[in-house]
Amino acid sequence: MGNSPQSSKGNFYEGILAMTWISETLNQALGERELKSISQQIGADETTTANALETSLPTLIAALKRNAHGGDAQGIFDAVARDHDGSLLNNLDHYLGHTEEGQGDGILGHLLGSRRSNVEAGLSRASGLNMASMGKLLSILAPMVMGALGKAQRGSQLDAKGLDVLLDQEAHDVERQNPQAMSTLNRLLDADNDGDVDLSDLARHGFGLLRKFMH
């Protein structure tokens, strides 16, 4: 006899564990032209912008995972299903030309809440961007991360549990690349942390998620 629906679903989720989506999707979508556009918008050189992207992406992945594990997996699924179909990544030129119309600040408010200013301060020190530029970068990147999540949801027909599994694996892969830096990021995301954490290990070694910009 074949697998029951429950065991089949279990095998399906196990298959997700072999995949990474968000960083790979953004690696495919982002190129030198997009990096230049983001650099111009935040008022920084391209090298500093690339370093800031490398520190910001794992932070947003970690924040998504924490929110999902904190009981908001269904809320993340609902937001992705409603507002983030991934089409934004198919026309990044248009998006990057209209970021002021985007949903970045709303996404960051939901993911980071009262921790946002502390997170921006920590990432600013790690990347070399000033606070204003880091805030703008995060607001540009957040809808792109949600778009990558939307592509994964639609491509694999994931439900809330499937997205939770995917985010867990993404965070695990990030931690495997640089466990000490990931531990520091988690402290930065703690609600009672004052933001004064040492991100020097992250600044030195990064995570290698956006490979094409890391030389």
Short summary:
This protein has 215 residues and is mainly α.
Task: Describe it.
With 215 residues, this protein is mostly helical. The protein is built from eleven helices and no strands. The protein has helices spanning 5-16, 22-29, 32-42, 46-83, 92-97, 104-112, 116-127, 131-156, 160-177, 179-188, 200-205. Helix 4 runs antiparallel to helix 7 (116-127).
Structural class: mainly alpha
Low-confidence stretches: 1-19
**What is the H-and-E element order?**
HHHHHHHHHHH
- How many helices? 11
Mean pLDDT: 79
Into which percent range does the helicity of residues fall?
Answer: over 70%
Rg of Cα set: 17 Å
Identify the notable features of this structure and list them briefly.
single chain; 215 residues; mainly alpha; 11 helices; globular
Topology of this structure?
Blueprint: H1 5-16, H2 22-29, H3 32-42, H4 46-83, H5 92-97, H6 104-112, H7 116-127, H8 131-156, H9 160-177, H10 179-188, H11 200-205
Helix pairs in contact: 2-8, 3-4, 4-7, 4-8, 4-9, 6-8, 7-8, 9-10
